[in-house]
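Q: I have 462 residues here and want to know how they pack in 3D. Can you give me a structure?
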Amino acid sequence: MRECGLEGLIEIARSCRVPLHRASRSSIGTSMSSLQFFQAVKDEFLIPRNKRIAEAFKSAYELLVGDRGGFVYEPRMGIHDRVGEVDFSSMYPSLMAKYNISAETVLCECCPDSRLRVPELGYHICEKRDGIVPKVLRFAVEKRRRYKKLAKEAKDARLREIYDRRQGALKWILVTCFGYLGYRNAKFGTVDGHMGVCAFGRQALLKAAHIAENRGFSVIHGIVDSLWLKKEGATSQEYVGLCEEIGSKVGVPLDFEGIYKWIAFLPSRTHPNVPVLNRYYGVKEDGNIKVRGLEVRRRDTPKFVYDAQMEMIKVLASADDSKGFIKEIPDALKVVKEYRRRLLEGKVPVWDLVVTKRLSKNLGDYKQKVSQVIAAEQLLREGVEVSAGKSMRFLYTSADNKRYERRVKTKELIEEGTNPDVRKYLLLLYSAASNILSPLGYSPKDVYDHARGFQYAKLTSF
């Protein structure tokens, strides 16, 4: 419901043959399994009560070669102008459908001499029958493709939204199919097939990168099924042409996501000289902002910090290139100064400072008194039942207090006169701001100095 609304939920129920109410409270994996069972019954296949397919024996070398996940190109840290992004459309599900990967087809007994082989590992894949999983995926991939086409063609905004939500719901079916392929209890899962899909994926991404480089593009970053490419003066038409060539040669559709006016690839927080694969943000030519790995993408970020960081990003998004980005930094830092002032003057509503963290295990299994555990214990003393999986909402009241029970206060017990730990929230604010500007060498202390009005060289040294 949160991701795709009622239309998406109805699409899941209809596609997976699950009653609507059951689909609403089941995991997406349960619904996806129902679709696989439906296909098996339709094809008159017996469904095993308990999975008994063992993983094929592997030497240490085979594990080293095969068990590697997706391929990545380390991002080139810093701010880059006019970088184009291309993504494989449902890459892993498409590969599973194309190469017939399922529990009963990988290392089958009937086709030991099959010409269809897993790259690097050499596992054979059945050529005599289609697997249950590929059949399900072809159905879902084709249906999603039709919905995406209808969404592009629809002139009515409401109808376009409905189609978009339906294709979004099917996307989760496709994503889950790949994950369940390696799940030990999945009826049609196989670890060897899971490794095979990753091998096909690595091969596809490498081939795509080589084709792009032969056309004069440079790879700025690449991760599993996405590439960020740069070529001086390249137009959208050139990117579209590149996608068509790669799609035809690889056998999986490649979509052009657009050209960024600028995009910033960020370093690690603990190792400033080391890039992080999934921490970046940028603004496309159409004005859309894309953010990954920052506080605005985290569920435990309080609204106060979220709003401040998002406002900073919007200020920087007004720049047309990296030079304009640098010129906007003083205005972005003014946002920090304003949010700092509001916090110190007590003008930030306490509810905007509430933090949400989930209990990943039961209270008795925690060895440290982390914030969510302290909040849960406060509720427990009030007679409220808490268990693993519950989200705890709390306010930092004295984060460094030696008496741990005073460090936070659960949202349900906040009353008039409850004061936040201003220092703690200022640290969160400075950290969020410095993360955005980290490619230019900003640290939380630099942001702190500017917020207090100190003049320093960093603002004028670029």
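Q: Anything worth noting?
A: DSSP finds 14 helices and ten strands in the chain. The longest strand covers residues 254-267.
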